[in-house]
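Need a sequence for this fold. Nothing fancy.
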């Protein structure tokens, strides 16, 4: 950091120095000619090499950016297409999942030998489903011995036994064959199980039309890009299972050598996901390619685009760069010539001004009538002297502003300390009062002069005071954990009516008589203990500050499970309705929770919001209502 006081002192008291000796005279003509030639030659040489370097770096950066952009583009397409293919596979498993859970199929295959009635039941089940679902070509059902039991097609596609045997371990996907109608079909097989016993197998032929839609989408892939999906044949080759952009009849009719890992689909099936700029596609064209291995199906999904198309813009960039190099060199030579002719006079002026300032004449300014860079330098020099005088004033203003800001911060800190002291005093009072009462009741209970029947109420009163302390501590802990983000909440089925009942059980007999509970069943999604804590706080608040009549109502309202605690006491002014939910907040009517600490309603709203719910207050027809809304639990 610059010490401004030292700078100002140095300007006021410049050091004494010996006058500089006069520069020796130089023959003007020879000097200008030599300087001009040096400037032009040097500027031209430097400009040429700088332009060449910049062009090279720009070319490399353009190429790298272009390659990166290509991979980002085809990688994004690959990710989207992979998601669509996985969704397609999930749909196939969903279809078989529906079929293996059909009671008709389960009951028929559970027989020691499938009867004719069982076969009819299976045929009705698979026939009705096949008619409804559009992307299922046929459905076949096999028994535990892999014997065909029923099929929706009179001439079902033959499925090799190895595929069926693999499917008997749970499920099998990823095999595309020619279906009965001649169109490709994806085989999805899943076992029929009952009590951990495999009863048979359901095989569906899923239409590949959705995969054709995926590979037929060329958005963002230019004129040569495409998405390819291939499976591995028994011989290890990569067989295309959908049409290609440049071969519409390739599905199940064209394959590439599985050992030729230069081809993207073969490499993906052999080694897994990859990205390459040196691949060769099925046409023999050099391509950029991104491959994804669909693990469960063992399919290769490849998105590629020809290198010639992807890098086409580099040729025009290089031509433009060469043109810029030639014109830049010529322009640099012309500018250097102009500068060399006109540079001597301004340099002498700058030298004389610097000598005058060095001699103590700090009011000296550089004469300036130029509009070029040297003129800007002279203006900057003169402006620097002016700004230095203003710097001290600016620093004083900044110090004043910082002092005012510090005073504001100090006031905020004092308010925070006052709030903390008020809070600690309230907590101390709230804890001390029940503890004092509890100690008094327990001390009386120890007195042998009291009968056992008299000690019971004393112990009950002591327990009630202990509960008051426990509730306050629970609220304080919940508030602290919520603020720090460490409060853990369950997300389970909560019966609000049951939580209300537990809260009511903890009340005294007199409180229970003053309370009316009504409503319907309401099942919410949340944390039972925290929901109960909110209801208990609201009931305690009603007894302390509400009217003599208190009601609790549960039910379902506007898509929420609700619990309403209402009393006929004085309402809260509109201007203070949100303040009661602030930490340490309390209305002018005194309504809050947990005594005078002002933390209960704040904690209750925090808990409600953490359970994706709401806690609100309203005053309706002479009744103060606190309403807890929680999401409805759904199976």
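Here you go.
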């Amino acid at each position: 950091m610059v010490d401004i006081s030292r700078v100002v002192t140095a300007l006021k008291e410049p050091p004494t120095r010996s006058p500089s000796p006069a520069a020796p005279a130089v023959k003007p003509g020879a000097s200008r000619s030599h300087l001009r030639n040096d400037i032009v030659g040097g500027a031209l040489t430097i400009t040429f090499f700088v332009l060449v370097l910049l062009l090279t770096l720009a070319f490399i950066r353009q190429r790298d950016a272009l390659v990166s952009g290509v991979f980002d583009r085809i990688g994004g397409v690959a990710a989207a297409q992979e998601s669509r293919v996985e969704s397609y596979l999930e749909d196939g498993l969903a279809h078989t999942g529906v079929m293996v859970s059909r009671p008709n199929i389960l009951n028929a295959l559970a027989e020691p030998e499938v009867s004719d009635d069982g076969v009819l039941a299976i045929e009705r089940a698979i026939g009705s489903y096949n008619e409804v679902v559009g992307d299922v070509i046929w459905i076949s059902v096999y028994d535990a011995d892999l014997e065909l039991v029923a099929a929706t097609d009179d001439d079902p596609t033959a499925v090799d036994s190895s595929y069926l045997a693999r499917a008997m371990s749970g499920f099998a996907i990823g095999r595309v064959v020619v279906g009965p109608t001649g169109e490709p079909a994806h085989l999805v097989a899943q076992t029929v199980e009952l009590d951990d016993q495999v009863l048979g197998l359901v095989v569906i032929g899923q239409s590949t039309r959705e995969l054709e839609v995926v590979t037929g989408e060329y958005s963002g892939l230019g004129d040569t890009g495409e998405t390819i999906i291939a499976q591995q044949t028994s011989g290890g080759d990569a067989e295309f299972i959908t049409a290609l952009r440049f071969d519409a009849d390739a599905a199940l009719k064209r394959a590439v050598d599985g050992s030729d890992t230069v081809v993207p689909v073969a490499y993906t099936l052999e080694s897994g996901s990859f990205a390459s700029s040196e691949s060769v596609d099925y046409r023999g064209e050099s391509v950029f390619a991104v491959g994804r291995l669909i693990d469960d199906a063992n399919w290769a999904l490849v998105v590629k685009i020809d290198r010639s198309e992807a890098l086409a813009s580099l040729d025009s960039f290089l031509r433009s760069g060469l043109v810029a190099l030639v014109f830049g060199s010529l322009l640099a030579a012309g500018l250097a010539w102009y500068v060399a002719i006109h540079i001597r006079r301004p340099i002498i002026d700058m030298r004389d001004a610097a000598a005058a300032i060095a001699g103590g004449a700090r009011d000296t300014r550089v004469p300036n009538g130029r509009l070029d860079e040297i003129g800007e330098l002279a203006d900057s020099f003169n402006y620097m002297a002016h700004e230095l005088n203003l710097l001290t004033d600016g620093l004083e203003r900044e110090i004043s502003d910082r002092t005012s800001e510090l005073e504001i911060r100090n006031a905020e800190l004092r308010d925070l300390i006052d709030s903390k002291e008020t809070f600690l005093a309230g907590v101390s009072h709230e804890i001390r009062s029940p503890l004092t009462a509890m100690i008094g009741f327990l001390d009386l209970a120890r007195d042998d002069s009291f009968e056992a029947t008299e000690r019971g109420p004393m112990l009950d009163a002591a327990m009630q005071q202990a509960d008051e302390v426990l509730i306050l501590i629970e609220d304080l802990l919940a508030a602290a954990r919520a603020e720090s983000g460490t409060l853990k909440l369950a997300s389970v089925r909560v019966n609000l009516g049951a939580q209300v009942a537990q809260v009511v059980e903890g009340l005294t007999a007199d409180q229970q008589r003053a309370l009316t509970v009504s409503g319907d069943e309401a099942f919410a999604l949340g944390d039972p203990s925290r929901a109960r804590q909110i209801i208990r706080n609201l009931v305690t608040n009603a007894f302390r500050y509400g009217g003599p009549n208190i009601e609790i109502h549960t039910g379902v309202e506007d898509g929420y499970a609700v619990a309403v605690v209402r009393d006929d006491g004085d309402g809260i002014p509109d201007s203070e309705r949100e303040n009661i939910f602030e930490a340490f907040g309390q209305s002018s009517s005194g309504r809050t929770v947990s005594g005078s600490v002002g933390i209960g309603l704040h904690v209750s709203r925090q808990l409600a919001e953490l359970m994706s719910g709401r806690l609100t207050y309203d005053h309706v027809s002479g009744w103060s209502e606190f309403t807890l809304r929680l999401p409805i639990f759904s199976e």
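For context: The radius of gyration is 43 Å.
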